[in-house]
Write a structure and sequence with these properties.
There is one protein chain. The protein is mostly helical and 210 residues long. It has 3 domains: 11-69; 85-130; 139-209, no CATH class. It is 48% helix and 11% strand. The protein has 8 helices and 6 strands. It has helices at residues 11-23, 27-40, 45-52, 56-69, 85-97, 103-114, 120-129, 146-162, and strands spanning 132-135, 138-140, 169-173, 186-189, 195-197, 205-209. The strands form 3 sheets. A two-stranded antiparallel ribbon has the order 1-4. The chain has a two-stranded parallel ribbon with strand order 2-5. Strands 3-6 form a two-stranded antiparallel sheet.
Length: 210
């Protein structure tokens, strides 16, 4: 069902909105103006949301703000709207599973998923308020190959049995280890120790009696 909020603009109001749209650098204000102008031309909220790539509820809020108080400027403090309790839980769950290195990436995700605009500073405040810290995850060694481990143990035992009593076993690296995964910082739950498996490959030592 297409929801339409009828907005009637005088030629002067329309001209003022178009001039403000062309002069402002704030994309959030431009989105609000476009929503109002399109609604005045008979577009439904669904159509406006699709055209502006924002959530339909955001369009409804923009239009309501304009009808009630001709409001075009978002609230100060980082966001023009707040996440609901359900949206907050969804975002916390998402950020717990996926680590973002930069706040602007989270801002973009919130915009795409919920249709809400946050500034970087506003999102930083949200993250700290909801128990996230910007820190480095813990690295854990790459998993060893169990078959190779067993083969090494058997080879070592055989080598030890073949060495004389006055000989020692010396090991050298047969291959160079691969580079380890770079563990960067990211937004992680303060109470969570998030681990990342490194790509460091274990040495494959070659032993001999000497």
């Amino acid at each position: 069902m297409l929801r339409i909020m009828k907005i009637t603009l005088t030629p002067q109001q329309k001209l003022q909105l178009e001039q403000t749209h062309d002069s402002t650098r704030d994309g959030r204000v431009r989105d609000r103006i476009k929503a109002v102008l399109l609604a005045s031309e008979g577009w439904s909220q669904t159509m406006i949301a699709q055209a502006l790539r924002i959530h339909e509820s955001t369009v409804a809020r923009h239009l309501s703000d304009y009808v009630l108080s001709e409001k075009l400027k978002p609230e100060n403090g980082g966001s023009q709207s707040k996440l609901s309790a359900t949206q907050t839980m969804q975002l916390i769950e998402h950020l717990t599973e996926k680590t973002y290195s930069h706040t602007h990436q989270i801002v973009a995700y919130v915009k795409e998923t919920f249709g809400l605009d946050y500034t970087v500073s506003g999102m930083n405040k949200w993250l700290h308020h909801n128990g996230f810290s910007y820190k480095q995850p813990k690295g854990v060694p790459h998993k060893f190959d169990e078959a190779k481990q067993q083969a090494f143990i058997e080879a070592y035992e055989a080598l030890k049995a073949s060495c004389g009593e006055d000989e020692s076993i010396v090991f050298i690296d047969a291959v160079h280890p691969t580079l380890s995964t770079k563990i960067s910082h990211g937004w992680i739950r303060t109470v969570q120790d998030k681990v990342i498996e490194t790509t460091y490959a274990p040495h494959e030592p070659t032993g001999r009696c000497c």
